[in-house]
Design a protein that fits this description.
By secondary structure, the protein is mostly helical. The protein has 16 helices and eleven strands. A hairpin with a 2-residue loop joins β8 and β9. 34% of the residues are buried. It binds protoporphyrin IX containing FE.
Length: 462
Amino acid sequence: MKQLNNLGGSLRTLAAEYNTKIVGFYLGPYATVVIDDPKLIKKGLYNEDFDGRLDIIVARMRSYWKTLGDIINVSTCWNLLKRYPASWGGSSGYVGFLTTKTASVANLAVKGLSRYDRSYTPFGIPSAPSHSVLCGIPVCFTVITSGLRFTANSKQVLTKTTMSGIFFTDGYFWHVQRRFTLRYMRDYGFGRREESLEAVVASETKEMIDMARNGPKYPAENELVKGDLICLQHFFDVPFMNGMVHIFARTTFPRSEYKVLFDLARATLLFQRGTNDFGGALTITPWLKDVLPGYSGYSNLKKGNQALLNFFDKIIKHALATHDKTYDRHFLDVYIKKWKEEETTVKKTTFSEHQLQLVCTDYMFPAATGVQSVLTFLLERILLQPEIQDKIHEEIDRVVGRDRLPTLDDRRNMPYTEACIREIMRYEPLVPLGVPHRAMKASKFGGYDIPEVKYYSYDDNF
Ligand code: HEM
């Protein structure tokens, strides 16, 4: 690799060397294809055959160490459980569970598991329709009883539920959750114009300007504004993050509590910096997490992830405690209602409290980091090229003036400013390689045969 610490750059160099727009190579055990052509990238992203995701350490850790749904055999299952003692299992201590129609297999599993993990005695769940064995703390029971219940024959044991959230899920689970969240978050302002959301963003922007003009008001702001010095990117945090909180829960954090948001944004950034588009070295050498947890980025991933989960746990618990199914106050209510309905009617649902936590995490994640990074890069660029800064100023003064905040109505009259924002995203792409996709079906692409990849297992890398 020619450009250390620049994965995108090094792959582009490789593509140039082979004079191709499609590079195929093995990244550890992963047969990988990288596309470097705008038209082909678009074609690839619209191709449903490539809508799969990978079972990588970042995804597992985020999802309490659950894995993409699949049926595997008993011995693999035991090996898995042996490898993931509770202390490794993220905050919930998730270890794993298995269900089987055959009581003897369940009994064998209990015995086998007891050998491996003495701190958490595995136990059977006789009341479950099939014989379920659970090892770990009761969060797994929630998973089972929340409808993700499967059966398998005596040789097969299902240890796996789908991973959670949007980013790292695929197939039916992803389709349902993605469609539902986009559809109903829209009712509360996501992806469209909505008066109350615009009012929140405007009011938080005013606070931001006040902070810059008049200095800090609360201790947490001392770290962001020091005289003429302003700490980017966190200075931009609040309008976007409170905007998301408003969509989820129709509430916002007042200025006296901004620290909660600043801390969350810092933790989210820790997560982001602990990895890269491919999941970092941890993807192909996951054992680094035990040998070099700090250097490999694992500690930061864990810390950042936990902060996001804790943040939403509180908000969701409150929404659950005050939930009234006859009245939807916000997106969380709509989600909870659907989850409870499916739980009682169809018995098998992709909705759960844990999934809701990860949905919120996935939509908050870019709002707590990405947008601020884009704006920070733009400011850096216009400091280096003041002639661009002058033109942006001229447009703002002409269209908006100095007496009011801009609104979305001004957007169509500000083509230069918009072009600059778009150009900085092209010039400094935040996710240069995109999020990796898994080929779910064998297909032809750009003249090459792309094989189906049934299941990339994180375990294969141990
Ligand atoms: C700041 C600029 C942003 C950039 C550069 C960016 C980039 C990306 C990229 C490259 C993907 C992967 C797409 C794929 O290959 O499947 C993605 C997915 C996603 N982004 Fe963004 N994003 C940005 C802002 C946002 C914002 C503001 C939100 C939400 C508030 C958001 C929410 C998501 C979600 C939920 C996904 C997962 C989609 C899925 O897997 O179905 N992004 N983003």
